[in-house]
Specification:
Blueprint lengths: L2 E4 L2 E5 L18 E5 L13 E4 L5 E6 L4 E6 L4 E5 L4 E5 L6 H19 L3 E10 L2 E6 L6 H10 L4 E3 L2 E7 L2 E5 L4 E4 L1 H8 L18 E4 L12 E9 L9 E5 L1 H10 L9 H17 L2 E5 L8 H6 L1
Helix pairs in contact: 4-5
Length: about 300
């Protein structure tokens, strides 16, 4: 079966996943198994087992504590079962959708929650390797994390991960674990970068309304960083700069902590123990990694000046 490395974990899947790069060295033990097109068993959830319901019922999650099992069911009926020990993810999708539809969830919030269950902290961020060190761009959906990473990728800098930044604390240092070699972009960002809103392929070509695209970092002109790198700075994205230049300002440790806490991945699913662990780890993070508020220019002909700001 195909083997991949994702966010520092050895992952084995029963089907090929085009967004990931197959591994040729198969000596390491498998950390997480993915079973696409399969369910774990027939479940009849009760109201007391409902762990989370999102606004507008976009997502419902049920939890069976004794079995260490979570069931994700999205509004379009893509479904995922996550088991903590041994770590497995089952995935199914309805006939009117495709595997690509399911992968938008699997490689985003579903896998991020599995990583959280395994004890890692994840930020809702993107990370790029710059000459001065690896930086993370943090912010809510639509803040410009992927667009900023794509701007820097066009300037020749390797991208480590998009949307989900998994942090591994080791010997007083926080390392960013590599994600997968794609950046997700909306057509507006594609037009900003390439002058044409259709310049990049769609993530789900058959989807009638969801038109998000992807930039493949395996292209010869771009670069993906496939090894962990120590984090040197965190930039919390603010409003887009209406001026001709990007600008940033330093944040106090307390202000950085508040911004980071608000933008950790799938924090709406954390129990008290995981939330307490997150607070402790991020408290140590802001004491050793400086944070900044960053406002990125809207003007494509001033993209190179972003580097001066960073």
């Amino acid at each position: 079966m195909p083997r991949y490395r994702l966010y520092g974990y050895e992952v084995e899947s029963n089907q090929a996943i085009a967004a990931l790069t197959p591994q040729t060295e198969l000596d390491a033990p498998v950390d997480i198994e993915i079973l696409l097109g399969q369910t774990i068993w027939d479940l009849t959830p009760t109201p007391s087992q409902c762990w989370y319901t999102s606004p507008h019922n976009h997502l419902q999650v049920w939890h069976w504590p004794q079995e260490q099992l979570f069931w994700f069911r999205y509004q379009d009926d893509c479904q995922f079962w996550l088991q903590r020990q041994p770590a497995r993810i089952w995935a199914t999708w309805p006939t009117h959708t495709t595997l690509e539809d399911a992968l938008t969830y699997l490689l985003g919030p579903v896998f991020a929650f599995m990583v959280r269950l395994l004890g890692q902290v994840c930020l809702h961020a993107s990370a790029v390797c710059l000459p001065q060190g690896t930086v993370a761009f943090l912010g809510p959906a639509g803040a410009g994390k992927s667009t900023t990473a794509a701007i820097l990728a066009q300037q020749g800098y390797p991208v480590l991960t998009d949307d989900v930044v998994v942090l591994q604390e080791q010997a007083g240092q926080f390392n960013v674990m590599p994600g997968y070699p794609r950046l997700r972009l909306w057509p507006m960002s594609t037009e900003l970068l390439y002058g044409d809103p259709q310049a990049l392929p769609r993530w789900v070509p058959e989807h009638p309304t969801w038109n998000k695209q992807y930039l493949d970092l395996r292209q010869s002109s771009l670069s993906f960083a496939a090894a962990p790198e120590p984090l040197s700075r965190i930039y919390c994205l603010g409003t887009r700069s209406p001026n001709s230049q990007s600008y940033c300002s330093p944040l106090s440790a307390q202000a950085a902590w508040r911004s980071i806490i608000a933008n950790t991945s799938v924090n709406y699913l954390l129990d008290r123990q995981l939330r307490r662990q997150e607070f402790e780890i991020l408290g140590r993070l802001v004491n050793c990694i400086p944070g900044y508020q960053l406002h990125v220019t809207r003007e494509p002909h001033h993209f190179a000046e972003l580097l001066q700001c960073l």
